[in-house]
Structure formats: structure tokens, C-alpha cells
């Protein structure tokens, strides 16, 4: 069975790498012949450091579908078209927004140095923090702060983009049109109803909708509407559910 795991808030917590206990239970899944796939809002650059080295070769979807990797190499990226890119940059300047913007590998960051996202950004120093004007292509945009979030949200909704608002973190997350986790999973060859999905947030809705079975970690209202079941946002309970799953498959 193919099993797709979101990372932050699902199998890793507080921005830290997978715990020893989580790695052990996932290793057992893999040794039983199940295919593990990771699907995260993080770009591949920032997804790799939370995984142990032997899992960094697994298939993965990053940037909510903007990046797809397998065998340790990125095999697909999707970026904003030039007009949309220009409009996003215009709105960022107009609303004096703080941001994290990813290109194919490098990034541009303008936010608070103590922001949780900054602390988790490129911990292995694999990339460069460039000026926004130096990024030739933009793959993913996160708005970290603006003085007028509702007005900015309204303007962004007019653009041909996929947009999520993460209420608990008070951030706005943008990807190119047609990009979501299910789109990324399809590039890995997945078919509807042939996988099990674990997730915890709005950006997991698309992969839940096409899963054979889906497990919501925590209490996200929108995700619960399409989830098969719910598990508390507690690492030990998630591990217990994975252990139980092994006996069901």
C-alpha cells in the first residue's frame, strides 16, 4: 500500500526532525513492503532536513505540489507565470508584506528573524537568501505579516493562484494555479483510491479527496469534512494509529 504523510503537525512537531520513535514506526511500515511518500508545504530544500538520511531518497511532494522529487532528485517544478508573478510582487509592495518566497532552490526572506518559519528555513545552508528581484522564477509564496491581511487576502483571491490561509499561524500560502498536493502525487504516478493519507491542514484536502482512506491529525474543520477518521494532535497517538494500521493492511 502507498501511504502519504504530511510532515509538520502530522508526523513531525514544533519544526523539529522526525523523532526516533516516529522513524522507527515508519521504518517498520517500509520493511513490510509499504511505499512511504512525504507531501509537505515545505520546499524540498527544507523538507529534507527533517527526514533521516535513509528516507531522503523516498518519493516526495514539496511546496504543496510545486515540487516533486524521487530518488533524491527533483523531477518537476512549477512556477508562477510572469504576469501573476508581477502582480504578487506588486501586492507585496503595496501592502508592505513580510514574505518567504521560494524559487527552484534559492529563496527571498523579508520577515522577522525570530519567526518560526525563519528558524526552520534552510537549516543546512543548502541555498542562498537573495533579493526578491534576483529570483528569476517564483515557485511558492508565503505571506508572513501585513498590516491589512483581509484586504491583501481579497486582492490575492482575484489572481489565478491556489491560496490557503493558515489561521493558527496567521500566514497566507500561495502556489501556481492547478498546484496542490494531489497534483504532485499524480506526477509520482498515484491513482485515486490507491493510497492512504495522513494530514492536518487545509492544504491536505486535495490528497484526502482522492485517498482510499484518510486520517486527520487534530481538529482542522475543513479537513475533517473529507477525512475518513480523526486522531488527536499528539505524537504518541499518531504512532499508535500507524502501528494499528500495520495490522489492518
UniProtKB/TrEMBL annotation:
Alphabetical list of InterPro entries matching this protein? HAD-like_sf, HAD-SF_hydro_IIB, HAD_sf
| MF terms (GO), sorted A to Z | magnesium ion binding; phosphatase activity
Enumerate the Pfam families for this protein.
Hydrolase_3
Q: Which domain of life is it from?
A: Bacteria
- May I have one GO cellular component term? cytosol
Concerning NCBIfam families, the annotation shows: HAD-SF-IIB (TIGR01484)
Q: What is this protein called?
A: HAD family phosphatase
Amino acid at each position: 500500500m502507498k501511504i502519504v504523510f504530511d510532515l509538520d503537525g502530522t508526523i513531525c512537531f514544533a519544526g523539529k526532525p522526525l523523532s526516533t520513535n516516529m522513524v522507527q514506526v515508519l521504518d517498520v511500515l517500509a520493511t513490510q513492503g509499504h511505499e512511504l511518500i512525504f507531501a509537505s508545504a515545505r520546499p524540498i530544500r527544507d523538507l529534507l532536513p527533517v527526514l533521516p538520511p535513509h528516507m531522503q531518497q523516498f518519493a516526495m511532494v514539496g511546496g504543496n505540489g510545486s515540487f516533486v522529487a524521487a530518488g533524491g532528485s527533483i523531477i518537476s517544478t512549477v512556477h508562477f507565470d510572469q504576469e501573476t508573478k508581477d502582480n504578487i510582487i506588486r501586492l507585496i509592495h503595496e501592502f508592505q508584506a513580510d514574505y518567504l518566497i521560494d524559487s527552484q532552490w534559492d529563496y527571498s526572506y523579508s520577515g522577522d528573524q525570530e519567526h518560526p518559519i525563519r528558524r526552520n528555513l534552510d537549516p543546512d545552508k543548502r541555498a542562498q537568501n537573495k533579493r526578491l528581484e534576483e529570483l528569476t522564477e517564483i515557485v511558492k509564496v508565503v505571506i508572513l505579516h501585513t498590516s491589512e491581511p483581509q484586504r491583501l487576502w481579497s486582492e490575492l483571491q482575484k489572481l489565478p493562484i491556489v491560496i490557503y490561509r493558515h489561521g493558527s499561524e496567521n500566514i497566507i500560502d500561495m502556489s501556481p494555479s492547478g498546484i496542490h498536493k494531489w497534483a504532485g502525487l499524480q506526477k509520482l504516478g498515484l491513482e485515486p483510491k490507491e493510497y492512504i493519507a495522513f494530514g492536518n491542514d487545509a492544504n491536505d484536502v486535495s490528497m484526502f479527496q482522492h485517498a482510499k482512506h484518510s486520517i486527520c491529525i487534530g481538529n482542522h474543520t475543513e479537513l475533517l469534512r473529507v477525512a475518513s477518521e480523526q486522531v488527536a494532535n499528539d505524537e504518541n497517538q499518531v504512532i499508535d494509529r500507524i502501528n494499528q494500521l500495520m495490522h489492518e493492511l
